[in-house]
Design brief:
With 401 residues, the protein is of the alpha+beta class. Helix content is 26%, strand content 31%. It binds fe (ii) ion (FE2). Its EC number is 1.13.11.27.
Length: 401
């Protein structure tokens, strides 16, 4: 069996090694020779936002990300401004329309701030697209080279749920800061200590909310078109509260670097959080991004001090004797978790700590999870009920429950 030990260019830049990644995001070894759509890892998450200039500053000052590249009118791009930020191996690109006729502005009118592209680094763009096409995928951008003084990037894009896409990128022959068309750019301000602080290291998973009754079609899409395999499966009762329910299945790339849980609403007595998302995003889209950290306590303390709001966890969660019995020993006293509202889950492989923010923008749509894994390859199944009850209280406060 040949084992893939390749790091993405972002992971190398972040000085992450395979052991750290295994701990942070639960990598597994696999045979990439037999993979019809080999994926090295995440390339970038591209967002369409109402004001990229201010959003980029927000992610630097609040989330501690580092500005590394820029594209806009000054660089010959008259359509939009785009800011490329990174934290560890995580790369976010924030795009906002400049030209009143920019398609980005139409996208933003329909969906609000959200993820337009979950881009993946691959070793062979043509092989991936040939396979995807043969399996019936919608190819949005044909494989082509883009070139500048830093080298050549080969890239293409295929459609996934809603108006979301997966760009695939081979950057093995490229040394520039992001892509041709972008120039290197650093912050105009001095950070707190003059250096970015890396509050999160890697992207763990990106969850997609899809249409009622279509989750299995999208699982099949990732199986057939992108060669992803099924991980844990959660259905019905697992994620039901007294009032609402959802169904969720998880697919992953061969090495588990890229994990996509897919949710659909399920019938309940009231509207679920997935229904609320679909109404306000205007269809399927990325629901949450899980950011892996090796010190969730510090990350939560820093973000909370800067005004990020997290979903409150009911005090009863920590008093529940069943929880204490279920989670066993974790690295910090439970009081440290309680004071921050951090959730714990344990399975046969280990445990994980997690917490969820409130929606990031004006619409009740995309949000973040922070996750610190200690062996567990799961997604916090044991926390779903406690968590969804907290989400429903928030939905009720917004008048959407
Ligand atoms: Fe998650």
């Amino acid at each position: 069996m040949s084992i893939d030990h390749t790091l993405t260019s972002q992971e190398r830049l972040a000085d992450l090694d395979l052991d750290q990644l295994r701990r942070l995001v639960g990598l597994v070894e696999y045979d990439h020779e037999g993979d019809p759509f080999p994926v090295t890892g995440w390339d970038a998450v591209v967002w369409a936002v109402g004001n990229a200039t201010q959003t980029a500053l927000h992610y630097q000052l609040v989330f501690g990300m580092e500005l590394v590249a820029y594209s806009g009118p000054e660089t010959g791009n008259r359509d939009h401004q785009a800011y490329v930020l990174r934290s560890g191996a995580v790369r976010f690109v924030f795009q906002g329309g400049v030209d009143p006729a920019s398609p980005l502005l139409d996208h933003h009118r329909r969906h609000g701030d959200g993820v337009v592209d979950i881009a993946l680094e691959v070793p062979d763009v043509d092989r991936c697209i040939a396979h995807a096409r043969a399996q019936g995928a919608t190819i949005l951008v044909e494989p082509h080279d883009v070139v500048d003084e830093h080298g050549t990037v080969r890239t293409a894009a295929l459609a996934t749920y809603g108006e979301t896409r997966h760009t695939v990128v081979d950057r093995s022959r490229y040394t520039g800061p992001y892509l041709p068309g972008y120039v290197a750019r650093t912050a105009d301000h001095a950070g707190p200590e003059g250096r970015p602080e890396r509050l999160f290291q890697a992207l763990d998973h990106v969850v997609g909310n899809v249409e009622l009754g279509r989750m299995d079609e999208w699982v099949d899409f990732y199986n057939r078109i992108m060669g992803f395999t099924n991980m844990a499966e959660f259905v019905g009762e697992d994620i039901a509260t007294e009032y609402s329910a959802l169904m969720s299945k998880v697919v992953a790339s061969g090495n588990h670097r890229v994990k996509f849980p897919l949710n659909e609403p399920a019938a309940g007595r009231r509207r679920s959080q997935i229904d609320e998302y679909l109404d306000f995003y205007g269809g399927p889209g990325a629901q949450h991004l899980a950011l892996a950290t090796d010190d969730i306590l510090r990350t939560v303390d820093v973000l909370r001090a800067r005004g990020i709001r997290f979903l409150p966890t009911p005090a009863s969660y920590y008093d529940d004797p069943a929880l204490r019995a279920r989670i066993g020993e974790v690295r910090v006293p439970i009081e440290e978790l309680r004071s921050r509202g951090i959730l714990v889950d344990r399975d046969e492989d280990g445990y994980l700590l997690q917490i969820f923010t409130k929606p990031l923008g004006d619409r009740p749509t995309v949000f973040f999870e922070l996750i610190e894994r200690h062996g567990s390859l799961g997604f916090g199944k044991g926390n779903f009920k406690a968590l969804f009850e907290a989400i429903e209280r928030e939905q009720a406060r917004r008048g959407n429950f």
